[in-house]
Design brief:
There is one protein chain. This protein has two domains: 7-18 and 53-351, Distorted Sandwich (Beta-galactosidase, Chain A, domain 5), CATH 2.70.98; 370-576, Tetratricopeptide repeat domain (Serine Threonine Protein Phosphatase 5, Tetratricopeptide repeat), CATH 1.25.40.10. The protein is 25% helix and 26% strand. An eight-stranded antiparallel sheet has the order 8-9-10-11-25-21-20-14, with no helix packed on it. A seven-stranded antiparallel sheet has the order 7-13-23-22-19-15-16, with no helix packed on it. A four-stranded antiparallel sheet has the order 1-4-5-6, with no helix packed on it. It contains 14 helices and 25 strands.
């Protein structure tokens, strides 16, 4: 066995990359497409991908130890892109050679690419964002640290990916901490993308599980209602399985025809979660994973997490932190998973001479946001910064995780529209509604046609102050200033609340962008609400829809229309593009 010293170097990786179009020009404070119990502010959501990708260079780090090459992408959330055997050229993660987002919450831009780090909740909003990094060495071991202070809640994480000399496996040390004044309920999930096919075997310990299969189910791995869940060939629908309770330190996956797999090891007292996910090997949703690729291959996921279920959280108080170590070990023979041959987490850690936990320290090279630059400009009294960055301020939202109050007061005093609106948005994001409305009034006094100010004012008046009449006036004025699809969706919902279906129909005639799937959904809903259930069904069943996971507006409309006609409401047609994965129904 080679015992070469490990090394790490900064490089770049060129991949076909699909850019996404934002779902709204408004801050994501009243987003009807958000299926999470909290706002994803300050992150924008994605509406759809551009039709064709473009080649894009992504910052990457390559770590080698003579046995493996591990490629990490700080430019895409710090994910591990690939684990490659330097002797055979074998690749141990799903070989998805593109960045192609698909409609999975919270931001509707999930990509199946490598091992994704998710904090402070599953499918983290920072998953496709640049994060900090620094190269690491310790003795003959080498690696890279990634992490950031996420802008939503101001929580911090640091993940270190290491290769050790002579060890054919990847060691990942992670620490998450809360140095804010607010307690949070959080999760961590490491999502590992793998190929999916009839040859795939999920290799999990024989422990109790909870399954999301047609709602909920439970049992002892691997049997579910007579179906052997080990074999991906048996999956004819979306499947999510969580082991709970679990006391073992391992799980993995093996691809029989490919003759390789991956073993995961961790201390279950620190990283207990064991999950698998599939869109199905056959059935109406089995081709959903193809929307994440360019080569027409299926994918699955194996995941490790805190806590055991994705519906649960861990409490992280001010000053609190937690840490864990996990290992991803390539497997070439199925027998390597068997008792007696399978390594243990504790034994492997001992053989490596012990494993250091990640410190509570962000990496050295951390991206600096516009809003951190604003703090510096305010401290320096640099008013030229406000003029030079006014356009940039109009395209992003100030995070409540930063102490921006005085800096935004200073910026708004410039009288520039984008900075005045940013101040109002920041107050609204912090639920300071009186201050937000006062700031919006000031912005509109100077810029009476400001689309963002009018639209946000209308939403606050309607949603928070419960004044639908005033809110309607502001939203209608906003659409006069600029017709924007997400604002049209808001206004339609308000008009429906008022029962003004004639105004809804008139709004649809002004909404010229019929390629937006929300136009079709709104038209179908207006047809249903005006006593035309058959026309609603015809529209729903004869249109090509964008696919969405965990979003069911079309399904609900279809069911309601069928009920109005006295027709059966199952099965829901796959052509609606919405999955049947409804947990807890």
């Amino acid at each position: 066995m080679k015992h070469c010293p490990a090394s790490a170097r900064l490089t770049s990786l060129r991949l076909p990359t699909y850019s996404t179009q934002p779902r709204s020009a408004l801050p994501p404070l009243f987003d009807s497409d958000n299926v999470y119990p909290f706002s994803i502010y300050p992150f924008d959501g994605a509406l759809e991908n551009d039709p064709q990708p473009r080649l894009q260079d992504h910052q990457s780090v390559e770590i080698e130890n003579g046995l493996l090459r591990v490629t990490v992408l700080p430019s895409l959330g710090g994910r591990i892109y690939q684990i490659e055997d330097l002797t055979t050229g074998g690749l141990y993660l799903h070989e998805n050679r593109c960045v192609r987002p698909t409609r999975v919450p919270p931001r509707w831009n999930f990509i199946s690419l490598g091992i994704e780090h998710n904090f402070p909740y599953a499918h983290a909003a920072t998953g496709n964002e640049p994060v900090g990094y620094e190269l690491l060495t310790k003795g003959d071991a080498a690696g890279v640290a990634m992490g950031c202070r996420e802008p939503q809640w101001g929580l911090c994480w640091r993940t270190e990916v290491w290769l050790h000399p002579g060890f054919r496996g990847v060691v990942v040390s992670t620490r998450c901490w809360n140095d804010t004044d607010t307690a949070r309920d959080v999760q961590w999930w490491s999502n590992c993308a793998q190929p999916g096919g009839s040859d795939t075997e999920f290799v999990y310990p024989a422990e109790p599980y909870e399954a999301h299969i047609d709602g909920e189910g439970n049992g002892i791995w691997p049997m579910f209602n007579g179906i052997d869940l080990r074999w991906h060939r048996n999956y004819d629908r979306m499947v999510g399985v969580f082991l709970k309770p679990t006391v073992t330190d391992w799980f993995g996956i093996y691809h029989r025809a490919r003759e390789w797999g991956l073993l995961h090891l961790a201390d279950p007292a620190k990283l207990p979660g064991k999950k698998l996910w599939s869109f199905g090997n056959t059935g109406p949703t089995s081709d959903w994973s193809l929307t994440m690729t360019r080569d027409g291959d299926q994918n699955t996921e194996i995941q490790a997490g805190i806590p055991e279920l994705q519906s649960e959280s861990r409490h992280l108080p001010p000053g609190g932190d937690f840490s864990f170590v996990e290992m991803w070990i390539p497997i070439d023979q199925r027998g390597e998973f068997d008792d007696g041959r399978r390594p243990t987490f504790a034994g492997t850690a001992t053989a490596l001479g012990g494993i250091d936990e990640a410190p509570c320290r962000l990496p050295a090279q951390v991206p600096v946001s516009l809003w951190e630059e604003l703090l510096a400009a305010h401290a320096a009294g640099d008013k030229s910064f406000l003029t030079n960055h006014a356009e940039q301020a109009a395209a992003s939202w100030p995070p409540t995780s930063l102490p921006l109050n005085e800096a935004l007061d200073w910026a708004a005093a410039s009288g520039l529209e984008s900075w005045m609106n940013a101040r109002a948005v920041w107050f609204a994001a912090a639920d300071k509604w009186d201050e937000a409305l006062t700031s919006l009034e000031a912005s509109l006094a100077t810029h009476p046609g400001s689309f963002v100010a009018l639209a946000l004012q209308g939403l606050i008046l309607w949603k928070i102050r419960k004044d639908a009449t005033a809110g309607r006036g502001s939203l209608e004025a906003a659409l006069e200033a600029r017709f924007e699809n997400s604002t049209a969706c808001h206004l339609d919902a308000l008009l429906k609340e008022q029962g003004d279906h004639a105004a809804r129909q008139q709004l649809l005639t002004r909404w010229t962008d019929q390629a937006d799937y929300r136009h079709g959904e709104t038209e179908a809903e207006v047809l249903l609400d005006t006593g035309k259930p058959q026309a609603c069904l015809d529209l729903l069943e004869n249109r090509e829809w964008t696919r969405h996971h965990c979003r069911h507006r079309r399904t609900k409309l279809w069911v309601a229309a069928r009920q109005a006609l006295g027709q059966e409401t199952a099965p829901v047609p796959a052509s609606l593009g919405e999955d049947p994965y409804v947990v807890g129904r």
